[in-house]
């Protein structure tokens, strides 16, 4: 097969146009083209008046060798790479030991699925509840101001990605096409097939719930076991080797443990630190969510084509480098979505964003965050958990400013820039549930962050006209942009000082987002499988 890239067609092209463009590119008659499939389709909206679709396609030809010879050296025509996934190991017969996976988010799910597919029968321990029960608890906070610290947006089946926008793209290097395996597994579990070929796929919350259940069923059918409401409270390490974990008072032995606990497992980080597992503080970002009318973003990005069904609700990605040396950037933008209450700890307020597949809510929201470094954390460098304490500090402050009832503190952009408290809403209705408390956000983050945001918002309005509109709403605080620690691992994917412990996914800082966490889960599963096979005397 050959892959043709950079085939540009107008947004409203008819079905025959792509076929014709392929024939023209290759200089062949229709009879020579046996079949083709779209590998990727991306809109190019750099010129709003002339939006194009850019295709990459894989083609099967009657005489590929002749075409290759004739077009040798022609740009944008290459052999289609082999993207199929091959298992690296098979579990030996009668394997006595079972690997343990802590956490059933995207990383833990793909680690468990891959291990189960190779014949290792993993035991998954997940502190939260199965996804349907978890949904009820999560709504408990959003509707009734009632938090369940063990079952919420961060904790439970599906992990932090379940109540999300379900964006499925990442900038990781992926020479083995592991992202393709992840997306293929997602499609098998019920995701729309288009996620395999549109450039910025997303799934939305509703579908994610069903997919997670289907993948759980697959893992169990392959001999895996998944235990909910099973928080790992301790870990047993002997002579630098993990030997088991303590869960609900029971000691589960295993010398192969995947740690896929996400970035909010603060008690678990503390436990691991107390047990001597090596970890270090790392940079992350803090800020607010910002909400605009989605129509403003659509008009700015797509002009007259706004609302076109192929384009959908427009997104954006913005960055501004401030005079005080800080960078401000948009994070986890959710077109046509809602701002969600994302705390997992009592007495704290955290924001994030989610959407449904249709992305048809009135507002666009995104984190608008300021990059911070370990040097900003009181207690650094002595305390590797100083960044986590820093998060807690600002999340508690947000709880206070919000009125101590899980409402989030909020302010209109015009008032924030002018330095006066907000007292009434304007055109933009904030979507955060259970609700917002209008206030002055200038003490909700450190001064340097406030200064940076006040400089950035008007500057970003040069990229999206109206971005600094007076009625846009800021809601605080966005603190869980990534993990505050890195649990360092070696080339063998094991902790640098604890053999048999495989730190993985976002919590250990080896991923940022659903897709990269899932890819990391596969890589860790492979390393673990090879190690188990080697321990049994295999090769
Ligand atoms: P997690 O998904 O955090 O999973 C960790 C799991 O471990 C949790 O289920 C937790 O309950 C469990 N756990 C923790 N401690 C223990 C313990 N001691 N014992 C047992 N279990 C434990 N990313 C995107 O790519 N696209 C998006 O659109 C997107 N939107 C998001 C929206 C929201 C509201 C949130 C909160 C996040 C969003 N993200 C998004 C980020 C994404 O969800 C994470 O990057 C991803 O889920 C990380 O995967 P993970 O498996 O490493 O960790």
Q: Could you explain how this protein is built, in words?
A:
- 48% of the residues are buried.
- The protein has a 7-stranded mixed sheet. It has a 5-stranded parallel sheet with strand order 7-6-5-11-23, covered by helices on one side. Strands 2-3-1-4 form a 4-stranded antiparallel sheet, with helices on one face.
- It is 28% helix and 23% strand.
- A hairpin with a 2-residue loop joins strand 8 and strand 9 (241-247).
- Helix 3 packs parallel to helix 6, helix 3 (106-117) packs parallel to helix 12 and helix 5 (178-188) packs across helix 12.
- The chain has 3 domains: 2-79, Alpha-Beta Plaits, CATH 3.30.70; 100-279 and 487-535, FAD/NAD(P)-binding domain, CATH 3.50.50.60; 283-478, no CATH class.
- With 539 residues, it is α+β, with helices and mostly antiparallel strands.
- The protein contains 12 helices and 23 strands.
- The structure holds flavin-adenine dinucleotide.
- Flavin-adenine dinucleotide (FAD) is lined by residues 102-108, 125-128, 153, 155-156, 159-161, 163-167, 231-232, 260-262, 265, 268, 332, 340, 342, 352-354, 505-507, 511-515, 517.
Strand content: 15-25%
Q: What would the average pLDDT be, to the nearest integer?
A: 96
Name the helicity range: 25-40%
Q: Using DSSP, what is the number of strands?
A: 23
CATH class term of the largest domain: Alpha Beta
Please outline the helices and strands:
Layout: E1 2-10, H1 15-26, E2 33-44, E3 52-61, H2 64-70, E4 77-79, E5 100-102, H3 106-117, E6 123-125, H4 131-144, H5 178-188, H6 205-221, E7 225-227, E8 232-238, E9 241-247, E10 250-253, E11 257-259, H7 266-274, E12 280-281, E13 284-293, H8 294-302, E14 319-321, E15 327-334, E16 338-341, E17 351-354, E18 363-372, H9 386-402, E19 408-412, H10 413-418, E20 436-438, H11 447-460, E21 473-478, E22 485-486, E23 501-503, H12 514-535
Parallel strand pairs: 5-6, 5-11, 6-7, 11-23, 19-20
Antiparallel strand pairs: 1-3, 1-4, 2-3, 8-9, 9-10, 12-22, 13-18, 13-21, 14-15, 15-18, 16-17, 19-21
Helix pairs in contact: 3-6, 3-12, 5-12
This protein binds flavin-adenine dinucleotide.
